[in-house]
Amino acid sequence: MTTATAGGADSAPPADKRPGTGAGAGGRPRCGVTGTRRTVAVAFLLPALVLLGALVVYPIVYSVYRSFLDQSGTSFAGLDNYRELFTDDTIRTAVKNNAIWVVVAPTVATVLGLIFAVLTERIRWGTAFKLIVFMPMAISMLAAGIIFRLVYEQAPERGVANAVAVGVHDTFAESSGFPKAHPLPVHPLKAGGGGSFVTKEPVRAGTPVSLPLVGVVPAKMPGDAEPAKAATASGDGITGTAWLDFTKGGGGKPNVVDPKELGLKGLTVEAVKDGKVVASAEAGADGVFTLPATADGALLRLPAENFREPYNGVDWLGPSLVTPGIIGSYVWMWAGFAMVLIAAGLAGLPRELLEAARVDGANEWQVFRRITVPMLAPVLAVVLVTLMINVLKIFDLVFIIAPGSSQDDANVLALQLYRTSFGTDADLGVGSAIAVLLLLLVIPVMFFNVRRIRKEGRR
Is the pLDDT of residue 6 over 70? Predict the structure, then answer.
């Protein structure tokens, strides 16, 4: 009987069990798995890489190349286009406004989103509130620009913002009743300085006084004004009539109260002696007023408060407020986005830490400032960086909301890029330089975001 020796042929493993040889599962021959997977990966990635190169890489490279050529694109201009970015006043304004946008808009939207997310966490209708705040995100920038162009209309009867401003102002400061009203040369009144009017002669007791005016817009006449009446003498006092000396359709006589002429209800009349007001009165619905005997021998004055222009609100789209106004419309749209992301982060916070802080005696403000905000820091960073990248390319809102007279004051780099690159006097060299500048401004923000994401991934 033969005994197999150690290491002999009888102890060798079968050929089909050796690594890399023989058949695999099911009797199929083995192949290079790593190489096959790499080939498949390249095949799937190739279309995406081609699109990426055609739509991203090539435009970037060509924009950098074109930024060194002149307006015609035939001659090398060196750094002239980049030098113009910092010497042209319009482009410098755009750079300044972009800096304002990057600092203010993301910060305000993030803070509002944080406040909304925290305050709506414990209320029953919090979901409905979040839905309402988030709804502007469903509106395009173009539609939002049209909406806020109407909101910021100067005329209070059309612009919501000025309608509110005028309503609040008129609540605390009474508006003028008769703006632009004035006497005619044939009237017994003359200019008294500062927008007021005074009688040409002192008034005497027992002699009714006539104070006719013209220039009152029919829409500004008091709704309860009555046909004017000629005043009658009243003892030692001074009586008179203040009325609109104008008859619709003509036929009236100056300085005479005609039947169709209305009294100037609420017109303030002052009696002035030696520069001091000794008596005052207001005209009734029929224009008749009465002053005490102390007014005898005084000049009657219609103070300027009767005629000052009404408050028409704020010039939201003027040179000084157009950029804050447009930022306000942006915050209206994007505060909901910030709120939803922050609310998602808030829902993931460990509640035991918050309750432990409250048990230790911390009030809600201390819990919010020392625990909630630090733990939400990664989410806040995501929101802030996302909005910063978004505002660097803001275009639609500025183009739609800012009127032509204020567009230079509200200018931003993306809008300047459009205005420079298109039109009859287009300069693609400067336009490409602006595009490269925008790219350089976005890169640090993107680098910070990628670095933060990698740091979060290591945790």
Answer: no
Contacts of 209 (CB under 8 A, 6+ apart): 188, 199, 203, 231, 238, 239, 240, 241, 300
Q: How many CB atoms lie within 10 A of CB 257?
A: 20
Tell me the whole-structure pTM to 2 decimals.
0.72
Give domain limits for the chain: 80-162+316-458, 189-306
Please say whether the beta carbons of 222 and 285 come within 8 A.
Answer: yes
Mean of all residue pLDDT scores within the chain: 85
Q: Give the separation between CA 214 and CA 211, rounded to whole angstroms.
A: 10
Using a 10 angstrom Cβ sphere, with 0-12 exposed, 13-18 middle and 19 or more buried, the burial of residue 64 is middle
Q: Cα separation of 369 and 383, whole Å?
A: 18
Q: For 80-162+316-458, which CATH superfamily applies?
A: MetI-like (1.10.3720.10)
Write the pLDDT tens digit of every residue in 185-211.
Answer: 889 899 988 889 999 999 988 889 999
CA distance 453 to 368: 25
Report whether 133 contacts 115 (CB < 8 A).
no
Q: How confident is the model at residue 106 (pLDDT cuts 50, 70, 90)?
A: very high
pLDDT higher than threshold 60 for residue 15? no
Quick one: average pLDDT of 444-458? 79
Residues 301 and 354: their CA atoms lie apart, in Å, by 69
Average of per-residue pLDDT across 160-189:
83
The pLDDT value given to residue 340: 92
Contact 109, 335 (CB under 8 A): yes
| Position 176 confidence tier, pLDDT thresholds 50, 70, 90 | low
